[in-house]
Amino acid sequence: MKPLIAPSILAADFANLQSEITMLHQSEADYIHIDIMDGMFVPNISFGFPVMNAIREFTDKPFDVHLMIEEPGRYLEDFKKAGADHIYVHYEACPHLHRVLQQIRDLGCKTGVALNPHTPVSLLADVLHDTDLVCMMSVNPGFGGQSFIEHTYEKVRSLSKMIKEAGTQTKIEIDGGVNANNAADLVKAGAHILVAGSFVFRSDDPAATIRDLKNA
What we know:
CATH class: Alpha Beta
Distance between the termini: 10 Å
Largest sheet: 8 strands, parallel
Strand content: 15-25%
Order of helices and strands: EHEHEHEHEEHEHEHH
CATH architecture: Alpha-Beta Barrel
Number of helices: 8
Shape: globular
CATH superfamily: Aldolase class I
């Protein structure tokens, strides 16, 4: 099965964001990945609600919203209003993860949990039935353009086995360092969704790069 592709607009040309979103809308991208950073959970600060509201006008593709923020439960309703379709919260930022996942589901969004590279997939065992999507970080969160962490393959295989044993339909997303050299191996290991930022937006033909990733 072909992977779903979610280009990360963190790597887009911010001075021409409308044209970048239009390009993604016309491309074979399945989702638009939006990294929200608060300067606390991760060092950088990125987008907020005004940007999400602005770009929502130019595409109806699902917004794949990755919250790299502390206390994400405070803002879930606002992200839904800004157009979020999938909302990922970090395991490491949620002491009451089950409650936050229920909040996301009650809003009508797909529930997602993101895991930092050091966090074992086994910690998701008790919430897997409440999780539609797992965003596995294959780089450390907060910065674009990092190198892929090779141990990710083993984590994907382990999580894929957990999902099969639990009998859930949870999808695995890979975020960080995805490119033409590792996409096929990630899909083979069990990944369903590939996030790609720099690899897409710094290529000579982003739409063609998205198409090539889909055919990995």
